[in-house]
Write a structure and sequence with these properties.
mainly alpha, 1 helix, rod-shaped
C-alpha cells in the first residue's frame, strides 16, 4: 500500500471522528438552548398571568363589588382578560 493512500485513510478517519464529535457537541448545545428558551418563555407567561391576576384583584374587584352581588361580571375573572383580541 502506498504512503499517500495510508495518509488519506488516516485523514478520512480523523475527519469522520471530528465530524462526529462536532455533531455531538452541537446537539447538546442546541438542546440546552432550546430548554432555556422554553423555560424563559414559560416564566414570562406565568409572570404575566400573575400580574394580571394581581391587577384584577387589587384594582378591578373593589370597583365591581356592588355589581357582582346582582350579576356575574367577567371583568372579575382575570383569566377572561385577553389583551390581544
Amino acid at each position: 500500500m502506498k504512503l499517500l493512500l495510508k495518509f488519506n485513510l488516516v485523514m478520512v478517519a480523523l475527519f469522520a471522528i471530528a465530524i462526529a464529535a462536532t455533531a455531538a457537541v452541537s446537539r447538546d448545545l442546541l438542546q440546552r438552548n432550546a430548554r432555556e428558551e422554553i423555560y424563559d418563555n414559560a416564566k414570562l407567561l406565568i409572570e404575566s398571568a400573575l400580574a394580571v391576576r394581581d391587577y384584577t384583584s387589587r384594582n378591578i374587584a373593589p370597583l365591581l363589588e356592588t355589581q357582582i352581588k346582582y350579576e356575574f361580571r367577567p371583568e372579575m375573572v382575570s383569566a377572561l382578560f385577553n389583551p390581544w383580541p
